[in-house]
Queue: 3 jobs
Job 1
Amino acid sequence: MARDVVICKKNELEIDIDCEQHILYELQEAFSFDVEGASFSPAYRKKFWDGKIRLLNMTKKTLPSGLTYRLCKWCDKHGYSWDFKNNPYYGLPYEQDERIFSDGVELFMNKIASVKPRKYQVDTVFNSLKEYRKTIVSPTGSGKSLMIYSIVRYLKSIDKRTLIVVPSKSLVEQMAKDFIDYGWDPENVHKIYQGHSKDTQAYVTITTWQSVYGLDKFWFRQFDAVVGDECHQFKAKSLQGIMKKMPDCKWRYGFTGTLDGKQVHKLILEGLFGPVYSTVTSSDLMEKGFLAKLAVEIILLKHPYQKFDTYNDEIEWLGLCEYRNKFISNLSSDLKGNVLVLFARVEKHGIPLHEMIDSGTDRPTHLVYGMTDVKEREKVREVCETSNNNIIVASYGVFSTGVNIKNLNHIIFASPSKSKVRVLQSIGRGTRKAKGKDDFKLYDIADDFRKNGSRENFTLKHCAERIAYYVEQDFQYRMTTIPVGMESTGAGELPI
């Protein structure tokens, strides 16, 4: 019996779609999405682009392989029959590894690592290996490195080699250290970043994407599997380019702490790695005692009325606002334990803020941003793990992901942000438990420039979006309003 849609695996990257033209047009529309902010693009304004991303290639009649299950669901929903066609080399578009059983995975994980795996970790590794590909959402502190390690160890046991791509040098070192701590021989792990050799026979290669994205496709052919850590960053064209150089890689796994909530972003990641699989929530981990419990204190600074024409104008003013920085300086100095102060702009906020904090306290202070050497970052981390009196002033870009400091007691959002990924990843810096630490506090600094019911300023709207993220994640929060910038009130005081 003829089917309306016949799906064949072209390679591990793409599927071929055989159907009538009118169905193809419907599919193109179904897998097309509006790009946020497209109207500001010169190409859009000149009518060279309609502001959409199309995941279906109409000329080649192909779709990213990771979206196979969505294609089948779409056909079922719209009454079109479908079937799979076997590719003699690549097999069927969807298949499962019949060798993988949950009990066997649990026994294997207990055998290969020095720590006992949690149930959700076993379930994640089982489902990942069973179905060959997954986009895995796993919050900070959930034991992501153990899951990746278990996948890699299994692949080694069947003589398969794995490439792990991470966004930073720090994460290369950190993941390699985690693997060795779990009990693996260092000879099995090869690291690539600045100046490290790209020649390797190791079973797992851990690299920054910057170090390999310019290499030709022949270099990538040595790998049977690819793991993208912090895979939410894989929407960048250069990162997608790496994946496209690995058309024969059967095992594909993307790990991230959170997705940004945009449908197109989610589908791009699913296309590269496979369907989204959520391991566990941060609130569940906190409730079960695996993570430190979070309390969010939103500090709404009430400024004298001002009107800013653009978001950048407002951000620049806030970064250089002396009384605002003084408030943050006083707050960070008064808090007990290690404090992480996060900023967005280095020259116009981070450096002057650090100078103000450093000059106003006897406590050790550290400035960390993109130009800070990897070894220096590691020193800061080690100092914080062995003492409880440090203030770290760091950029979101460096410290919001991939830096594990268990002994963090407080985080201050000194710069406003509306990025869901940045907010939740930053919170993850404080969730890890340490000796004597069962909870931690986030101070979210927000700013209100309204007067007599005037419209909300840009960053106040962003605060509302962050609150929505806290509610979504079931984090407890409260808001305190403090007048600032007025002669009678000074910078204000917050009860700690």
Job 2
Amino acid sequence: MKISLIRKRKLKKFKSDKLREECGIFGISNHGDASALVALGLHALQHRGQEGCGIVSFDGSNYHSEKRQGLVGDHFTDPETLKKLPGESAIGHNRYSTTGETSLRNIQPFFADLHMGGLSIAHNGNLTNALVLRESLVKSGAIFRTTSDTETIVQLIAKSQREKFIDKLIDTLFQIQGGYSLVLMTNKKLVGVRDPLGIRPLVIGKLKNSYIFASETCALDIVGAKFIREVENGEVIIIENEIITSIKPFPKQKPRPCVFEYIYFARPDSLINNKCAYEYRKCLGAKLAEETDIDADLIVPVPDSGVPAALGYAEQSNKKFELGLIRNHYVGRTFIEPTQSIRSLGVKLKLSSTRTIVKNKKVILIDDSLVRGTTCHKIVKMLYESGAKEVHVRIACPEIKYPDFYGVDMPTKEELLAHEKSNEEMCEYIKAKSLKFLSLGGLYNALIKEKRNLNYPQFSDHYFTGEYPIKPHDNLNGLKIKQLSLLSAKSNS
């Protein structure tokens, strides 16, 4: 029988020139239109995952599940689909896979029928010791149905010798490591969990008598819910019979949220620490201008991610802001390139320049990050071809030199431009007149008006420093998942 080896990181080649957040989660209890509201919440969180989506509901007696590959709007706008998901409690998930291949089997939420009753779970993040745990579980007789690290959580809950569900969950939480937020649904409870460092986000909202968990506040806004607060790092929130209970089982420690939630991941209108992500990004751009400003005619953002930082840069430097690049929002993920002859179009499928704006101008091109540099190279070339006199690239975060192990899909260390090249070499690669990054100190000053704590950084900033707050055990051990071909990417059952 053929055996496929599936690495912790996805086998498919990293094609994007942006970091990708793994997924978005949403859960609600005590509402007659629970599934419809979950679908709306997932729609608001679509930017956090586009490979698959799923909803599990509970009607008081039975669980119901619908999972699809692709976008929420393509599947969960159909009333007939939502009719298959009755009940007053439901949880949902958008997926962009980092652990396990792209297959219907790996789409969440997962469901398990345990001796204590049904359990459904949606997970945002990545466990850094999932394969170590998986190996131990398999040796003890556990049978895995998916290649997702989320199933490891389910297996640990099932094997726990504790009697009550919450005790089983806490027992499990003390065994897993990594950056994660969880929403779990049982016959009686809706539970939200955030990892001990608060790396991955989770918020609480309320809609009349219904409580909601979501990855971001934008998902609360779309359903008309009131934002209550963020789930604290290491906190377990239990909702049962319209009563909310908080448990903090872990030793108290300061949070270290993922810095890229501020830089890029969170939707601009989402609140982080009671401030819109958009505002943080403008501050990053303003600080970038303080550190790297030069003589130029125009400030041009890379749409859409570079717009807030470019606005901040323009305001701080008192330079003219222009949309020198226009994004085509109607190019989907399934765009077909029928012949080799047109594949060289590359970035032009999504971006075009406003030629008369940039012609004969010294342009400062602003983006939120630089990962592999391939897209930036094409954009710089496009601006020069449109008549720009000079193109200076400014990046509103420090150089990304190290990969992530906490739920972010990104290249290997060797694929990161800044890890392999000096600033001069990077500038030559993208063919810009100059290239500058926001300093690490500038990043902290812009976000929290503080210096970086060298002993205990206020953020998970390992992308820039290589200082990982949680040891990536699986990667250090070089473990691989051994899966029967039954669970190959071709299998959808």
Job 3
Amino acid sequence: MKTGQEYKDSLRKRNIKVYVKGELLDSESLIDHPFIKGHVNSAAMTYDLAHDPAYEDLMTVKSHLTGKTINRFTHIHQSVEDLIKKVKMLRLISQQTGTCYQRCVGFDAVNATYTVTYEMDQKLGTNYHERLKKYLAYWQENDLMVAGAMTDPKGDRSLRPGQQADPDMFVRVVAKNDDGIVIRGAKAHMTGMVNSHEMLIMPTMGMAPEDKDYAVCCALPVDAPGVLHIFGRQTNDDRKCDGDIDQGNARYGIVGGECLTVLEDVFVPWDRVFMCGETEFSGLLVERFACYHRQNYGGCKGGVSDIVIGAAAVMADMSGYGKANHVKEKINEMIHLTESLYCCSIACSAEGKPTASGAYYVDPLLANVGKHNVTRLIYDIDRIAQDIGGGLQATLPSEADLKHPEIGKYVDKYFKGVATVSTEDRMRMARLIENMTGGTALVESMHGAGSPQAQKVMYAKLSNLEHKKKCALHIAGVTPPASKGTQETKEAR
């Protein structure tokens, strides 16, 4: 298993093309760029914690393929216990970083692909599952960070992939030969892509037979020929170039460092192709991935919310109102909301079941409920934190003002809280709350792992409304009304 430093060193060996604010960065300078180094540091934590004896039970596991000890982020879930430990691991790392550490998407992608390729092979006689197992062994042996790549730009959302004015709005296969396939298109909002080793590409939606060129799943290096990445902007990202106080979470950054990944006629050998035109399984792969990924959010957002709760409580103490009853009540409400998020992730894991492949899968309804809770409750948690933190977090002068030889004394004097706490420390805490409760962080809570509407669609599919209606009719002593067909038959008689 890699250490955090070995992970960082391995990134410098790539030949990746990344544009940041219009500037092309090379692999050597990329991970030290102010916009990116925080994301690298948070991902490195997933490696370092695996070497800490205190956390080895959560962070490491025996590979079901090789029997070797591996980082859990490269594992295929073999039990309910694995599913539960995954959620606990995510909360732990979030408590250590206060942000996204970017390995979850690839982790969920390979678990989903593992289960679907097995079922695809069983029905269609393909050999995708064996290919995936060989790739997985390589992934585990080298302790790779693999970005999951599902979201396509999509273009006109009213049209299917093959109906778009520009056919590249969804990733598609444009050529095949004896050696492999050639793909073209782009993947959007790619978390951790620029500091990953490889990417696992999946279809973004269930594909109809006429869209078979878009039903593709494959793996390739992030620096493969024809691949380039355009790094996205985040709230207040230019502050990362101006010292560390104004950043809030200077060491680990905010969310996951998303980018647009462009695939311009990229060759992928057959041994890295795990779906190619099998449209009837594309929707299943999307659904499996979505549920695995939605499982996460009570764990990772629970851990992030732990930091927000702590920051709000510390800010109250620094300002002199930490013992006020209304503040204590607000802190308790934040705790209640956070644990509500967490328990849903634990519940969907505890209700997990084995798939035909032997790998375990979460309860899909509860996983969707958990993620949908995040789209609401995080806003409540963050609203209370902003309430407790006060207007200071929005109107503070800059770090440069605090350290200015003429005006610094005024900033220090008039932004002080309790006498025993330095103004600088109070500013740091205010900026942390600002960083974690606004802008990019909130949007990610809303749309990461799918929008709220995506979860509602799954509710309709999974909640078994007809069973609920039958239960109500039985309890009320009401005979179910005959179906139209049954009634017509009776009348005919």
